[in-house]
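Lab manual, section 2.4: Encoding a predicted structure.

Procedure: take the sequence of the chain (157 residues), apply the prediction step described in section 2.3, and record the output as structure tokens. A sample record is shown.
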Amino acid sequence: MATRPMVGGLHSGGIIATRYGLALNLLSIGRLKFESYEVENIRPLVVSSPLTRKPLKMLGEKKLARAIGLTEIAIGGMVSAGRWAPKVSATGSLLAAGVFAATLSFLVTTPEAWQVRERGREPKLSPAGQFLIKDVVLLGASLVTAAESLNSIRQSR
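Recorded output:
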């Protein structure tokens, strides 16, 4: 049977791994938006989405990708502030939740996210859809780190 200190240690370790794993994902994904091949990779997503249609027209693909990348990098930095700046981290975590909710909307707006459906069979995710589905976990991580930061703020009062 697990003891309370062991459970507490698992919880703390899980929060740390979740926070810095989330930040690392955002920083890494954001940095990729400066690579030409990533601009190509996200093209079907941004072209099909009502959320990105207007910014795409205004900025073009390359500048939009870089704007998204800078946003992801900034949010990743905010999330990583953790215990040193819990208000900043909470804000970053909530923004990250918004980012992942937006990217999950691409599952609905991007035809390339789904394979051609065979008669009488359930739809299947394409490689693009499989890439997007991981954002459910990242959305959950964003909410967990937001809650942990907000709880830290509340306890410090």
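Check your result against the sample. Helices lie at 4-32, 36-48, 50-80, 86-109, 127-133, 135-155.
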